[in-house]
Amino acid sequence: MPLEAKGISFRYGNCPWILKDFSLTVNRGEVVGISGHSGCGKSTLARILSGYEEPQLGTVTLDGKPLPRHGYNPVQLILQHPEKAVNPRWRMDKTINEGWVPDQEMLDAFGINDNWLKRWPNELSAGELQRFCVVRALSSQTSVLIADEMTTMLDALIQAQIWHVVTEIAKKRNLALIVISHEKHLIKRLCQRVIEM
Ligand SMILES: Nc1ncnc2c1ncn2[C@@H]1O[C@H](COP(=O)(O)OP(=O)(O)OP(=O)(O)O)[C@@H](O)[C@H]1O
Ligand SMILES: [Mg+2]
Predict the structure, then answer these.
(1) How confident is the model at residue 1, as a pLDDT?
(2) Contact assessment for residue 169 and residue 139, using Cβ atoms and an 8 Å cutoff
(3) Residue with CA at minimum distance from ligand 1 atom 3
(4) Are 29 and 176 in contact (CB under 8 A)?
(5) Rounded CA gap, 189 and 172, in Å?
(6) What is the pTM assigned to this prediction?
(7) Distance from the CA of 77 to the center of ligand 2, in angstroms?
(8) Which domains are delineated in the chain?
(9) Atom of ligand 1 nearest to the CA of 149
(10) Ligand 1 atom closest to the CA of 40, numbered from 1
(11) Minimum-distance ligand to the CA of 49?
(12) Which residues sit with their C-beta closer than 6 Å to ligand 1?
């Protein structure tokens, strides 16, 4: 069942409209890319689709129902800068167990070392920290994963590793995967369909 955005219009305060009557449907099992120039509203759209920003007009539904306001969000958003997505005062074991408790197999799949779990976020590299953010987003309750420039800051090797694991999991669990990136080759490689904003 799909994530559906219908007739979304959005602007910040009195600024010009960023989204005007925008609609999008992403089905489970689909990998959809969103691309467009810097500042066109991709991250804003990602926040709207995951319920963190309220559009002035339009609706976002998952399986025909509004996104839940409490508890685990089945539409998980992964940000470009993982350091902005974690509490600096929480060690990684607390951070990762915030939404669910991943098993060892999941930690191993993302190459997360046991000794990273007792570290603070600032004691990890960006690539190491991003792996935690990705795992945190992959509870069995997740049905849509939105990756907003998820690996843009990482080197090619780590980028490839993370995408390999994420796309395998998405396939296995029949997740809807939305890939936001300005890297056209990445979108082309991963996505069945691309939306130009
Ligand atoms: N909180 C805010 N208040 C006012 N304007 C904002 C706010 N956040 C973003 N904007 C503006 O909204 C527009 C869209 O921003 P957004 O971050 O969605 O773009 P983007 O497509 O993700 O860009 P990029 O490719 O650089 O990540 C930009 O012009 C930005 O300056
Ligand atoms: Mg952005």
Answers:
(1) 63
(2) no
(3) 12
(4) yes
(5) 18
(6) 0.95
(7) 12
(8) 3-196 (3.40.50.300)
(9) 27
(10) 21
(11) 1
(12) 12, 15, 18, 36, 38-44, 182
Compute, in angstroms, the gap from residue 130 CA to the centroid of ligand 1: 22
Yes or no: say if 29 and 46 are a contact pair by the CB < 8 Å rule.
no
pLDDT digit string (tens) for the chain, length 197 residues: 699 999 999 999 999 999 999 999 999 999 999 999 999 999 999 999 999 999 999 999 999 999 988 889 999 999 999 999 999 999 999 999 988 999 999 999 999 999 999 999 999 999 999 999 999 999 999 999 999 999 988 889 889 999 999 999 999 999 999 999 988 899 999 999 999 99
**Distance from the CA of 42 to the center of ligand 1, in angstroms?**
8
Give me ligand 2 centre to Cα 42, in Å: 5
Is the Cα dihedral 197, 34, 42, 61 positive or negative?
positive
